[in-house]
Amino acid sequence: MNDFAQSPSLILLPAVDVAGGKAVRLTQGEAGTETSYGDPVDAAGEFVDAGAQWIHLVDLDAAFGRGSNTAILRKVIKQYRGVSIELSGGIRDDASLDAALEAGATRINLGTAALENPEWSADVISRYGEAIAVGLDVRGTTLAARGWTKEGGDIWDVLERLEEAGCSRYVVTDVTKDGTLRGPNLDLLREITSRTPKPVIASGGVATLDDIAALRQLVPLGVEGAIVGKALYAGKFTLAEALDVAGD
């Protein structure tokens, strides 16, 4: 246990996914599986009060192309200025990217745009560097795009292209595990970290404090952090407990 306590810490990013103005969680990223958890500002506030240094903030309506929650996202960012915000969902052109950065987001997570518009995403990566991460949402070895409703190519081909573009960070989600509380895909994370020297943030499936401990053991391989969502909302553990295990 002493060895574990001295191991590098894992950064935790509690998730606030917003749809229809409410904080929600999906199962396997599917529209129509939303469970509502109330006001996104309040949800973020509870995480901040518990010690979160990062919030993973997602506009699900923008990701699915059915609207946006821009005003609410801005409110969350403004309310918690001392916390770093990773923003995701529907950022596919200069206008939406500039608006997200101007709102105060620390880091932008590109998803569909990185798959469907490689020239633009390569340009954005070169211009903004550390402020840009790319989300790799995976089913098997096939990437998912458009709110996980379309196929987006082979993960290894896309990863190679993004490496050439100089991408600074990857957010890796096993879509089949997201929102299911079935545990993270450790094998996928090991495989990705073996193919890139860039930091990787794990997403999807975290259900127990043991899962967080297992992810922390991958930090020396390149897993920098983990997004935690449904387990927190379902009361599987508290963020304070998770931060303690993560060493964050």
From TrEMBL:
Pathway: Amino-acid biosynthesis; L-histidine biosynthesis; L-histidine from 5-phospho-alpha-D-ribose 1-diphosphate: step 4/9. The keyword Cytoplasm applies. It is found in: Cytoplasm. GO terms for molecular function: isomerase activity. Its EC number is 5.3.1.16. Keywords: Amino-acid biosynthesis, Cytoplasm, Histidine biosynthesis, Isomerase. Pfam families: His_biosynth. SUPFAM superfamilies: Ribulose-phoshate binding barrel. The active site is at residues 17, 137. It catalyses: 1-(5-phospho-beta-D-ribosyl)-5-[(5-phospho-beta-D-ribosylamino)methylideneamino]imidazole-4-carboxamide = 5-[(5-phospho-1-deoxy-D-ribulos-1-ylimino)methylamino]-1-(5-phospho-beta-D-ribosyl)imidazole-4-carboxamide. PANTHER family: 1-(5-PHOSPHORIBOSYL)-5-[(5-PHOSPHORIBOSYLAMINO)METHYLIDENEAMINO] IMIDAZOLE-4-CARBOXAMIDE ISOMERASE. Belongs to the HisA/HisF family. This is 1-(5-phosphoribosyl)-5-[(5-phosphoribosylamino)methylideneamino] imidazole-4-carboxamide isomerase. The lineage of its organism: Bacteria, Bacillati, Actinomycetota, Actinomycetes, Micrococcales.
